[in-house]
Specification:
Radius of gyration: 44 Å
Order of helices and strands: EHEEEEEEEEEH
Distance between the termini: 148 Å
Structural class: alpha+beta
């Protein structure tokens, strides 16, 4: 199986167009050259479509994977080498100024498909100041919202626990005050009973001895 290596300057048009698309065989490796300055961020988005002969239309085949490889042409240093689904994105930052080769190939090169067939590939390259992906921002916001909701729930639980502990503390303090009050009253009653008993005994003894003297 012959693999074609075609170096093109189609990415020059990508700076002026929002997107471009091209056709390639499933066993083909298509490469583009992009001249980049030093420390420049590049975001690429791609979508590979397969042709459905029965329905006569292009569609995203989930069984197709796309291999993305980016390397510096000057020293053949590989910056990106990743395999993704039929529709995805890749990001890298140039370490050295100069030409960079961005190559796309399908997983047919690994023998997952029998026979070559045409693919239509949409490619969008953004260099430098990249517009943020709204879907990524939305997912990030949803994640933050979920975390904030969980934190608020935990704070509510903590507040409820603190309120419960304060109520328990008030109940314990009231019970302690009632117990102390009852202990004081019980002590006073005991002292009153003891004083009354002593007074009765003293009065009884005085009368007893007075009666003895009279005799």
């Amino acid at each position: 199986m012959t693999r074609l290596l075609s170096l093109s300057l189609l990415l020059v048009a990508a700076h002026t167009a929002s997107a471009l698309h091209f056709y390639m065989q499933s066993d083909e490796r298509r490469c583009f050259l992009e001249e980049l300055p030093n420390h420049t961020m590049v975001v690429g988005r791609y979508k590979a479509e397969d042709f459905n002969r029965e329905e006569q239309k292009w569609y995203v085949n989930p069984e197709i994977g796309i291999q993305v490889q980016v390397e510096e042409v000057a020293d053949s240093h590989v910056v990106v080498n990743t395999r993704g689904p039929a529709e995805g994105s890749f990001t890298f930052t140039s370490h050295e100024p100069g030409d960079h080769s961005i190559c796309l190939s399908s997983n047919a090169t690994s023998g997952w498909f029998e026979g070559a067939h045409a693919l239509r590939v949409h490619l969008d390259i953004a260099v430098g100041n990249v517009k943020r992906d709204d879907s990524v921002d939305k997912d990030h916001i949803n994640s933050l919202t979920t975390r904030i909701r969980d934190l608020n729930q935990k704070l509510d639980d903590i507040r409820k626990e603190q309120q419960f502990q304060r109520e328990r503390e008030v109940e314990f303090r009231n019970l302690s005050e009632q117990t102390n009050s009852r202990a004081i009253w019980w002590s006073l009653i005991q002292m009153a009973v003891l004083a009354a008993t002593c007074y009765w005994q003293a009065t009884h003894l005085r009368r007893f001895f007075s009666a003895k003297k009279l005799r």
